[in-house]
Structure prediction request, 226 residues.
Amino acid sequence: TQLLEQSPQFLSIQEGENLTVYCNSSSVFSSLQWYRQEPGEGPVLLVTVVTGGEVKKLKRLTFQFGDARKDSSLHITAAQPGDTGLYLCAGDTSGTYKYIFGTGTRLKVLA
Amino acid sequence: EAGVAQSPRYKIIEKRQSVAFWCNPISGHATLYWYQQILGQGPKLLIQFQNNGVVDDSQLPKDRFSAERLKGVDSTLKIQPAKLEDSAVYLCASSLRGTPGTEAFFGQGTRLTVV
Prediction:
């Protein structure tokens, strides 16, 4: 059973455009993480959000955790080809650091 | 700081054969995870260890998959016998325990192809 649904599943945009990726669940998470995964590599952590309503910024990336801690979004401003990859959200429902991954959003940024 | 090491990187086997994967986590990391990532999907947790004890193996197909973490450090994941649907990347990750939202560090994974 997949607890975390991500949308869109695929996204192809031109360099310089903005985009938002969503991560939704019916479960409440004690913490939620966003990862980026490149082909042939393991996922790499981008950010962890813990508090409902929390907003974190990482250069051109803005992450938001929903007030009810059931959803999150990742916004990329002025996308670059280097942003290409699989974006994964992962949530911990039990506080035991057992992270359930979402379905993933595959992003391609065209030069 | 050395990352999570996994071997082999690639493995091709015939169905019904056995295979084993090895993982060496980051030194001092108490928690170790094995994930299965089928092409085009997010990783699925197979088993979670805390030191050498199993915390969660509810998603592990125990009729064919087994995992151990002797001495609470290295871990091995075994599949016996393999099926075609086991073709996937097997990712190992480790993390410290104690703070909310602790970061999990992933290895590069082992890509298994069952033919």
Remarks:
- Chain A touches chain B through 29 residues (CB under 8 Å).
- Chain A has no helices and eleven strands.
